[in-house]
C-alpha cells in the first residue's frame, strides 16, 4: 500500500508540474499579446458626448439625433436623443483606443428617422491636439472639454456645435 501511495504522489506531482508549465506558457502568451496589442495604439480615450446646439430642426416633427464617430476603422454610436430637436442631450461616454498614426475623429450627427433612412444633420472633423497625446509619469492622462463646430446644410461651420469632454491616457 505504501508503494501505491508513493506512486500516486509521484503521478500527482508530475501532473501538477505539467499543469504549472501549461499555465505559465498561457500566461506568457497572453502577456505577449497585450504588449503587441498596446503597441498598436497611441492612447485610450474616454469621450463624453454631452449635448449639441443645432441651428435648425430639419424634420416635420422634432428631430431625434444621435452621434456617430469614426476613429481609425472603428465606428461608435450614441443612443438616440428622442425628440431632442435642436438641443439634444446624451451624456454618454464612449471608451475607445486611438490607433498609432491617427489623431482625427470624424463626427456625424444623424436624425433617427422612423420610416425612412436616417438623415445626416451635421458633421465635423476633430483633430486631437498633440499636447493631449503626450504622456509622462507626472501627467499620465489629460482631461479637456471642447466645443466642436459643426457643418451641414447651412454651410461650413454654420450648423451649430457639439459639446464633448475627453480624457486621454
From TrEMBL:
<dbReference type="GO" id="GO:0043130">
    <property type="term" value="F:ubiquitin binding"/>
</dbReference>
<dbReference type="InterPro" id="IPR035892">
    <property type="entry name" value="C2_domain_sf"/>
</dbReference>
<dbReference type="GO" id="GO:0005737">
    <property type="term" value="C:cytoplasm"/>
</dbReference>
<dbReference type="GO" id="GO:0006511">
    <property type="term" value="P:ubiquitin-dependent protein catabolic process"/>
</dbReference>
<protein>
    <recommendedName>
        <fullName>C2 domain-containing protein</fullName>
    </recommendedName>
</protein>
<feature type="domain" description="C2">
    <location>
        <begin position="31"/>
        <end position="144"/>
    </location>
</feature>
<dbReference type="InterPro" id="IPR000008">
    <property type="entry name" value="C2_dom"/>
</dbReference>
<dbReference type="Pfam" id="PF00168">
    <property type="entry name" value="C2"/>
</dbReference>
<dbReference type="GO" id="GO:0031624">
    <property type="term" value="F:ubiquitin conjugating enzyme binding"/>
</dbReference>
